[in-house]
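User: I've been going back and forth on whether these two constructs are worth ordering. Before I decide, could you fold them both?

Assistant: Sure. I'll take them in the order you sent them. The first construct and its structure tokens:
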Amino acid sequence: MPTPRQIRARIRTAKNIQQITKAMKMVAAAKLRRAQDAVASARPYAQKMREVMTSLAGGISGGVTHPLLRQTAGEPKNIGIILVTGDRGLCGAYNSGVIKKALEIARPFGTDRVRMICFGRRGITFFRRRGYQIVAEHMVPANGLSFAETLPLSTAARDLFASGEIDALYLVYTRFMSAISQRPQTTEILPIHPETDAAAVQGPTTDYIFEPGAKEILSQLLPRYVDTQVYTAVLESVASFHGAQMTSMSSATDNAGKMISSYTLQLNRARQAAITKEIAEIVGGAEALA
């Protein structure tokens, strides 16, 4: 049984941990509000951009070609995965959940047929140790990334698909649902499948008239579509990270409080036992002298 001094040391340690986790919870809550506002601003634009591109892919007449409109017959031989994780831990299952999603896609193809583009130190470290080829990488600070910072990685992904090095491009990130709910999600952003994706667009397929021309417009819209999807995924993941960290630190703070209560009760019992022992010794000594 630990001594009262040891129990007091454990109580001090638990109180220090409780102060740290409480401070981290407050910081995550403050950053979550800004990240949540950024997601609310970017999500409608990204969704509408995807709807427009799937509709355009189904309405373009023959003779109009673009490298990002390339379709592959059958199953893809090589794939690219854009993975968005966090740089740090202490956020529950946030990193492990999205890494598991990416691993489910990558495992059937093996390390030689997968090209990884990673945001976040956790994903970079995980797949590098397992021998996967990481084409491009970028850290994700707590304040998030700007559009300009995500652009080189989305450009690298576009180049892989346009050159034919990969046949499909997947985006794996964590979709922000609420402060206590985040959902790992996989989206195939290239190639664009009008047969399946266009079904989400309400109404019949539109026959478009392009001005100045389909080639010029698509050369601007298709790269922007990929860049927008990647940037929005980063925003979603940053908000999810702060939400997961806030929830995790809240639970840690509560657990530290329970531990302090348990140790305090144990300390009181130890003190009572020591007092009872001293009284018994005094009484025994007095009876021996009588």
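The second construct, handled the same way:
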Amino acid sequence: MRNARFRLVFALFAAAASFFGPGFKAARGGAWLMPPGAGQVIAYTDYSDSNKAFDIHGSLVTVPAYQKLELGTYLEYGLTDWLTLVAAPSYDRIRSPTPGQSYDGLGESEIAARIGLYRWDDAILSFQTGLRTPGASFDLLGPLEIRRAASVDVRGMGGRSCIVAGMDCFVEMQGGYRFFTENQPGEWRIDLTSGLRPLPRLLMMLQSFSSISNGPGPYGHYAWTKLQPSVVYDLAPQWSVQLGGFMTVAGINAGRELGPAAGVWYRF
């Protein structure tokens, strides 16, 4: 029973590891739309290496070491003043010990559309829906051999910009649900972002990503919350670089991710 529980914990390490990409979105938060004819491209990479996971009680336990390298691109383009198109292809390289399954191939990539609902001078409400490709095997240790299914992601998004002590800042919240095909259980998603610009060229961000699922059969219940601090420095009007890190700070039947991340931004 103990080994079975550890297999499930380690299997869900892969599921939790696949959702880092959304952290590299717009500098003002994902709720805002791009102006018509304008866009941005963000090329990013992140690396996770850990041998800890949260068990069914939320306590940290030791599991076989897990490594994941992700390479991805995030593209936003403003089609009209109320519609922004999104594309996010990614590539995963996953390594897990025997009898686990390693994986090299397409990560959970997405195409999406964001629609503006209401706008004020300093705030916005929007809605986004997207199609996501399958990810790596749901169970890296091998007994289930179930690949993460394709999904539809729907979410409401709200953001507000403000000035604190003379510094530009913004806050944003996203709440949504991810519907998976092949009768795999869905996930509730809550993403929070705050940003502060202490210098004209420097943006400091703190982001939180959470997922909750209560699936039947072999999937079971899992939940996790990940924090990601980062800084974005503007090299030029069109170019920026982003450096940061991430760590899973709480979870149930979920891996504790921990590692660095970096990105290059281009605005056009």
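Notes on the second construct follow. Confidence is low (pLDDT under 50) at residues 1-28, 139-145. The two ends are 55 Å apart (CA to CA).
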